[in-house]
């Protein structure tokens, strides 16, 4: 089982905030990013870390920049 760390939790919080600001559901973001809503939900909870390719798709779906969600 994956144990969330500070980075995954930070990314998850940022994704959640950006999604709420955009007015999208988890399912809508997941669909636009070409992934499953269960996987996207895990990202928001910090239970998984997205690949660079997936992160690119998600930030495009949310209309934000990667620097908006990465802690570095």
Please summarize what this structure is.
This protein has helices at residues 6-22, 26-33, 37-45, 52-62.
Named CATH topology: 434 Repressor (Amino-terminal Domain)
Largest sheet: none
**Name of the CATH class:** Mainly Alpha
Gross CATH architecture: Orthogonal Bundle
Shape: globular
Number of helices: 4
Compute the gyration radius: what is it? 11 Å
What does it look like?
The chain is mainly alpha-helical. The chain has one domain: 434 Repressor (Amino-terminal Domain). 62% of the residues lie in helices and 0% in strands. It contains four helices and no strands. The chain has helices spanning 6-22, 26-33, 37-45, 52-62. Helix 1 packs across helix 3. The longest helix is centred in the N-terminal third of the chain and has 17 residues, at 6-22. The protein is globular. The chain starts with 5 loop residues before the first helix and ends in a 10-residue tail after the last helix. The model has no long low-confidence stretch (mean pLDDT 95).
Keywords:
mainly alpha; single chain; globular; 4 helices; 434 Repressor (Amino-terminal Domain); 72 residues; 62% helix
SSE diagram, text form:
Blueprint: H1 6-22, H2 26-33, H3 37-45, H4 52-62
Helix pairs in contact: 1-3, 2-3, 2-4
